[in-house]
Design brief:
Elements (H helix, E strand, L loop, with lengths): L5 E4 L4 E4 L13 E2 L4 E2 L15 E3 L4 E4 L10 E4 L5 E3 L5 E4 L5 H7 L3 H11 E3 L4 E3 L1 H6 L1 E4 L2 H38 L21 E4 H4 E4 L12 E5 L2 E6 L9 E5 L8 E3 L4 E2 L3 E6 L5 H10 L16 H6 L1 E4 L2 H30 L1
Parallel strand pairs: 15-19
Antiparallel strand pairs: 1-12, 2-9, 3-4, 5-8, 6-7, 6-9, 10-11, 13-21, 14-20, 15-16, 17-18, 17-20
Helix pairs in contact: 1-4, 4-8, 6-8
Length: 356
């Protein structure tokens, strides 16, 4: 049988608490409410001052009044990390009924369900919203039975664990990529990299980037009809149109104005706006390898403007690089292509789970 959720006032679920620290909690028990973790880095003049701190026990909630795009009136945060202490400026409330920790961690932090209550129970001040405790305790919310709380809490906690796993994998792979970009390309003054695939021993040759790529200018797209062809700018995808500047050749996008230091792969067909160059590989050069070369170049040092960062076609063409034989280019390019695919996969999984 389906059990309806019950409307309850927060005063029936929580009570205000100002339980003071008797110094049984030290500096290593200070809780950062903003991101809910223990932080001993908080500046405290002396241990005696810790008596002014309020004890925040497991399951307690605290109001954090900073406004943001996600939280227009501040937000509540639940303590799910263990007993600790918080500054006396935070208003803390303790549960007075049976509850599921995981469920309330999400419910009390949910802007969609808490917005009306916080609109009625907060008042704006100069820097943040201030909670009026008596008004908050009079507000109501719908609450499921304890067993349903547990099931919802377990589901959301399992999703969070998966989100964290994919974020960690993404970050580990991004760190690995950064390290390999340093080790698999020669350092200044050398013509061989620190790390190479087996079988490659020849020194790399110095060339100008213009010998390896053809730099092409983007164009305005506003005269075009809508269609299936993606349009890219310095920040990435913008819209889709009916025509392409390149129908069958992939390229490297690099900013002409604005963001000039974030080159990225452009998969054909595509169109680029006039603030984004696209660079096509010349015969005998591997595009994935050349993207790595682009990523290793300090493009900001080639900025030709005193205002909005600008990069010229000449500056790109005259940039000196070291390149190996085509077979080694392909091996390096294939490795970084696989890494990029894995990084994208974990980012996509992360985003899908976060949306879910």
């Amino acid at each position: 049988m389906m059990v309806a959720w019950e409307q309850r006032k927060f005063g029936e679920l929580y009570r205000p608490t100002s339980e003071k620290n008797d110094l049984s909690f030290g500096r290593d028990s200070i809780i950062s409410v903003a991101n809910m973790h223990f932080s001993s880095e908080v500046y405290v003049t002396d241990d005696e001052y810790l008596r002014t701190y309020n004890i925040m026990r497991l399951g307690d909630i605290a109001f954090e009044g900073n406004r943001s795009g996600k939280f227009a009136h501040g937000r509540f945060v639940e303590n799910d990390i263990g007993d600790g202490i918080v500054s006396h400026v935070f208003k803390v409330f303790r549960p007075i009924v049976d509850y599921d920790l995981s469920y309330w961690k999400y419910a009390i932090h949910n802007e969609a369900t808490m917005k009306n209550a916080l609109t009625r129970a907060t008042k704006a001040s100069t820097m943040m919203h201030e909670l009026v405790s008596s008004d908050f305790l009079m507000q109501a919310t719908f609450v499921p039975a304890l067993e349903e709380q547990r099931q919802i809490g377990m589901l959301l906690a399992s999703l969070d664990n998966l989100i964290t796993l994919h974020q960690r994998k993404h970050d580990q792979l991004a760190t690995l990529k950064k390290s390999l970009l340093e080790k698999m390309f020669p350092k200044p003054g050398s013509d061989v990299p620190e790390l190479r695939f087996a079988g490659f021993t020849e020194p790399w040759e110095q060339r100008k980037l213009g010998d390896a790529v053809e730099v092409c200018g983007g164009r305005d797209y506003k005269h075009l009809d809508g269609g299936p062809i993606p349009v890219y700018g310095t920040g990435g995808y913008m819209t889709s149109v009916s025509e392409a500047l390149s129908y069958d050749k992939d390229a490297i996008g690099i900013g002409r104005k604005g963001t000039i230091d974030r080159p990225y792969m452009l998969k054909a067909p595509f169109w680029t706006v006039d603030t984004l160059f696209y660079s096509l590989p010349r015969s005998g050069n591997d595009l994935e390898f050349l993207l790595c070369e682009f990523l290793n170049i300090d493009w900001k040092s080639k900025d030709e403007s005193t205002g909005l960062p600008s990069l010229s076609k000449q500056a790109i063409n005259e940039t000196e690089i070291l390149v190996p034989a085509q077979t080694e280019q392909r091996a390096i390019g294939a490795l970084f292509s696989r890494l990029d695919n894995l990084i994208t996969l974990h980012q996509r999984k992360h985003d899908q789970l976060a949306t879910l």
